[in-house]
Design brief:
The complex is a heterodimer of chains A (313) and B (274).
Chain A lengths: L1 E10 L2 E11 L4 E5 L6 H8 L7 E6 L10 H4 E4 L11 H11 L4 H10 L15 H13 L5 E5 L7 H16 L3 E6 L2 H7 L2 E6 L2 E7 H7 L1 E7 L3 H8 L5 E4 L5 E4 L3 H10 L6 E6 L2 H9 L8 H6 L1 H7 L1
Parallel strand pairs in A: 3-7, 3-8, 5-6, 6-7
Antiparallel strand pairs in A: 1-2, 1-4, 8-9, 10-12, 10-13, 11-12
Helix pairs in contact in A: 3-4, 4-5
Chain B lengths: L19 H13 L2 H25 L14 H5 L3 H22 L1 H8 L4 H35 L13 H26 L2 H22 L2 H8 L3 H9 L10 H25 L3
Classes of the chains: A alpha/beta (313), B mainly alpha (274).
Bound molecules: adenosine-5'-triphosphate and magnesium ion.
């Protein structure tokens, strides 16, 4: 379990992480989402004590990371897969980490096997591809068999096979009851891996919700086709609900979920031939949530939303 | 392969905290596993040996004609390679820490050991043991082989039992180890390979020359004897000359040149964000 309490980080006058209060629970994969520069990496660095918070606190299983006598047995982290000496072999890279905690060399070999680097374990990592580097970083994060795993953009540079592999790995880690906290700036990727999402923008918490809830929230309208549409319509209208009759006789409902509409129709024994949600893609839902919080807005955004840009500053 | 992240048997419960011994194993793994480190260590030992042998051979008349003059210090002749070895081993000390910053492995290191300070002591211990043992052996081999070469001419040789000789041989190894630690300290303070090496060479080479040019003659010898190389040569030579500190005093001054930057580096290591 990871707890962030009013976690704040300022660099000079710039607030990079602002009053972040989040609990990351065991047993599920939690995605940590946000546009570039949202403060995800900074948050993760504070979690493992590489960076001091300006205020607030980050704890792992109730204690700050550095107060655990064997920290990598408690929490494993992949922050920067590029952080390796090019002249050192993969095995020696992990061995140096393992020795600090008195972990046996056999554990290093197991992890190399797990991430699929056993065949190249003696090769210098300078020649490794981006994907091999990520795998090595993941092996390092799992070395101490930690209850909590924190990975910063682990799918970076992985091919589709690698992405599927890591998705399964993360899910199986969560299924074993571990806390898994994974950052990404790709909503679609996270929606396939994570069950819960923590979304940040400009260092602030934007949303902390299950993926399923975001999915239902991203429903824009529901199309209802019924031979008795005229009877159904008054049952659906109400506060905050708009029902429009389409030229083909179907109803377009904004403000109710398909489940709610289906329930009301069946209560009144009105047959329904189609009930489909016109859903915004998760990527769109994510963009909508973070639009005002995009750190490095591209040129198009600036010209399309000049007002947003101004208020955001 | 994806489902099994844990060893079924789990991990041994052995140590319940991070120990200095385990950190030294980790640091030794880092040092030995990069080829250039081992090449540098071997080069320092080789420089000490070969320069010493060449000088000894010249004095003994094995090469060169007529034989070079040994002065009255045959032990010093055999240890003539100390200056060159000093430069090489200083680089090893620098790299032992700056390579962690240049490659980013420092973040891995500090994540494994968030209390940080023990990492400094482990690095100091490993650099000390590695350089003192390898260069100590090299110094003794150089001394004995050098005396054989010197003795093949009609020249006096030194024995280990002669006054000051054992101290000078061990002193050479200690001086080189100290220089490696000074490199380590400068690397930790500056976090840049180029910056730390330039500073180290500046202290070794430029400072004595600069002092000689800039200081008034009345103060010159008084102050120059406190520079690390001069202070060091008081215990690496069998009979330091009168302008130098006594061997004990020289060792103390030399130690201060290492300890002060090392403590500064330790402080920076703990306080400054990586
Ligand atoms: N050491 C530092 N000094 C000053 N500013 C910093 C420092 N580190 C990060 N920042 C700033 O903090 C902000 C957040 O950076 P961070 O790397 O945490 O974002 P991120 O969410 O991980 O982004 P990305 O998706 O691009 O990885 C950025 O604007 C960055 O420029
Ligand atoms: Mg980042």
């Amino acid at each position: 379990m990871i707890e962030l309490q009013h976690l704040t980080k300022q660099y000079g006058s710039k607030t990079v992480v602002e009053d972040l209060t989040v609990t990351v629970k065991p047993g599920v994969v939690t995605g940590f989402l946000g546009p570039n520069g949202a403060g995800k990496s900074t948050t993760m660095r504070m979690l493992v004590g590489l960076e001091e918070p300006t205020s607030g606190r980050a704890t792992v299983n109730g204690r700050s990371y550095r107060d655990h006598p064997l920290p990598i047995r408690e929490l494993g982290v992949l922050l920067d897969a590029g952080a390796r000496h090019p002249g050192r072999s993969a095995r020696n890279h992990l061995l140096a980490q393992a020795h600090t905690h008195g972990l046996p060399a056999s554990r290093v070999d197991e992890m190399l096997e797990l991430v699929g680097l056993a065949d190249v374990s003696k090769d210098r990592v300078g020649g490794f591809s981006l994907g091999m580097g990520q795998r090595l970083g993941i092996a390092g994060a799992l070395l101490g068999d930690p209850q909590t795993v924190v990975l910063d953009e682990p799918v970076n540079g992985l091919d589709p096979d690698g992405i599927r592999w890591i998705r399964e790995l993360l899910r199986s880690l969560a299924a074993e009851g571990r806390t898994v906290f994974v950052s990404s700036h790709l909503m679609t990727e996270m929606a396939m891996t994570a069950e819960h999402l923590v979304i940040v923008g400009r260092g602030k918490l934007i949303a902390d919700l299950p993926v399923a809830e975001l999915m239902s929230r991203s429903i824009r309208s529901v199309r209802v086709r019924s031979p008795q549409a005229a009877l159904l319509q008054p049952l659906l209208t109400g506060h905050g609900v708009t029902v429009t009759t389409e030229p083909d006789g179907s109803l377009d409902v904004i403000g109710l979920t398909p489940e709610e509409i289906g329930a009301r129709a069946s209560e009144a024994s009105i047959p329904v031939h189609e009930l489909s949600s016109n859903q915004a893609s998760l990527e769109e839902a994510f963009m909508e949530l973070t639009r005002d919080a995009v750190e490095y807005a591209g040129e198009t955004t600036t010209t399309v939303h000049p007002a947003d840009e101004r208020t955001a500053r | 392969m994806s489902t099994q992240a844990t060893a079924p048997a789990g991990l041994p419960a052995a140590p319940d905290r991070i120990t200095l011994h385990n950190l030294m194993r980790s640091e030794w793994t880092k040092l030995r596993s990069v080829r250039s480190n081992m090449v540098t260590l071997a080069a320092a030992a080789g420089a000490l040996l070969f320069i010493g042998l060449i000088f000894s051979a010249m004095v003994g008349g094995v090469v060169g004609n007529p034989p070079a003059d040994a002065g009255d210090d045959p032990a010093g002749v055999a240890l003539a390679g100390v200056q060159v070895a000093q430069l090489i081993i200083g680089v090893l000390g620098v790299l032992a820490i700056t390579s962690e910053y240049s490659t980013g492995t420092i973040r891995t290191t500090l994540t494994a050991v968030p209390s940080r300070l023990p990492v400094v002591w482990a690095k100091v211990a490993v650099v000390t043991i590695a350089t003192f043992s390898v260069l100590g052996i090299s110094a003794f081999v150089t001394f004995f082989a050098g005396q054989v070469l010197i003795g093949s001419g009609d020249v006096d040789t030194a024995a280990l039992g002669d006054p000051g000789v054992l101290r000078a041989v061990l002193g050479a190894a200690a001086f080189l180890t100290g220089t490696a630690l000074l490199g380590l300290a400068l690397g930790g303070l500056l976090r840049s390979t180029a910056g730390a090496i330039s500073t180290l060479f500046g202290i070794i080479f430029v400072l004595p020359g600069l002092g000689f040019i800039l200081l008034p003659e009345s103060l010159r010898d008084d102050l120059l004897q406190y520079l690390p190389t001069t202070a060091g040569s008081s215990f690496t030579s069998v009979a330091p000359d009168s302008s130098q500190l006594s061997p004990t005093m020289g060792a103390a001054v030399f130690a201060a040149w290492i300890l002060v930057p090392l403590l500064g580096a330790a402080l920076a290591f703990v306080r400054r964000p990586a």
